[in-house]
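Q: My labmate handed me this sequence with no annotations at all. I'd like to see what the chain might look like in three dimensions before we decide whether it's worth expressing. Could you predict it?
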Amino acid sequence: MLGVCRTKVYHLIQRGELETVKIDGSTLITTRSLEAFVDRHARIRGQ
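A: Here is what I predict for the chain of 47 residues:
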């Protein structure tokens, strides 16, 4: 969906750019965090 590999997603999580929650052993990225990430990068490319 984002067009980035799994390793890049892990790096974004480690850097605090994506917020996660753990549910039943699964790590999930919050919708709010993902939307904010996309908005930040859409503005940068749109400049």
